[in-house]
Amino acid sequence: MKPLFLFVVALATTVITLFSSFSPAAEENTIKSEPACIVAAKASASMTAFFDAHYYWFLPGDVYDGFNSMFEEIVRMQNLYGVPCDGNISGGTLVARGYILPVVPHLIGPFAFVYAHF
Q1: Model confidence at 16, in pLDDT bands (50, 70, 90)?
Q2: What span, in angstroms and rounded, lies between the C-alpha atoms of 38 and 48?
Q3: Looking at the structure, do residues 112 and 64 belong to the same domain, yes or no?
């Protein structure tokens, strides 16, 4: 009697486990692909948020340059040096660092960088 009882309990546990793993709620949470225009808009929004953040900008040698957004600082550096500037490190020379605090010496490292491509 004991082995039969254990077999019934094991069988019931298996059936409950098997049928509880296939719930309709799992089908509702499937990942749906989004159109390319929505994906591009989300990427653009995240880049806009990055460029809208304002930093305290310092030139090399910790010379204070101003409180600007990344976009404004890139335009300013392009006008100052007369060469293309951006946040891409490859092939560039560091011309400005953006900090979230205006104090010198800096308590936290820079959050944004502007590179000039001479």
Answers
A1: confident
A2: 15
A3: yes
**Token representation of residue 80:** 């100052």
Q: What pLDDT score does 55 carry? A: 94
What ranges make up the beta strands (E) of the chain?
54-59, 63-69, 85-86, 93-99, 112-116
Which distant-in-sequence residues (6+ apart) come within 8 Å of 78 by Cβ?
A: 84, 85
**Cα 78 to chain centroid, rounded:** 26
Do 23 and 59 reside in the same domain of the chain? no
What is the count of structural domains for the chain? 2
Query: Positive or negative CA dihedral for 36, 42, 46, 51?
Result: positive
Amino acid at 5: F
- Max distance between CA atoms of the chain, in angstroms, equals 92
- Type of residue at 60: P
What are the tens digits of pLDDT across the range 40-73?
556 655 555 555 789 999 999 899 999 999 889 9
Range of the domain at 23: 2-27
Selected residue with higher pLDDT from 18 and 114: 114
Q: What is the pTM of this model?
A: 0.56
